[in-house]
Amino acid sequence: MLKKSLLTDRELSDGDNKGSAHVPKGSIAVYVGPELRRYVVPIRYLRMPEFRDLMDEAAKEYGFQNGGGLEIPCDEQYFEYVLIKCATQLNV
């Protein structure tokens, strides 16, 4: 139940692929997995070690000159695990 409420109410966006524009203030949109599913993540997660590891992987995979949205090279299930871990550590 915790997983569903955290992802549905907070981090998981409408599930659209690239193209959706609305991102609430204090959040960032990222695209995950081969289908580039869109997630909206609170900016405060960016300082979490688990999320920084994902950002390092994105930098290795795509470099810093990516012309589009922020893509995270991992599967959705692992990304959702990281989101839950970040939310738990920040007591969201």
Automatic annotation (TrEMBL):
Organism: Hibiscus trionum
Pfam families registered for this protein in UniProt: Auxin_inducible
GO biological process per UniProt: response to auxin
Biased segments, Basic and acidic residues type: 1-19
Name of the protein in its database record: SMALL AUXIN UPREGULATED RNA 47
Classification via InterPro entries: SAUR_fam (IPR003676)
Keywords assigned by UniProt, alphabetized: Developmental protein, Growth regulation
Organism domain of life: Eukaryota
Region (Disordered): 1-24
Sequence similarity: Belongs to the ARG7 family.
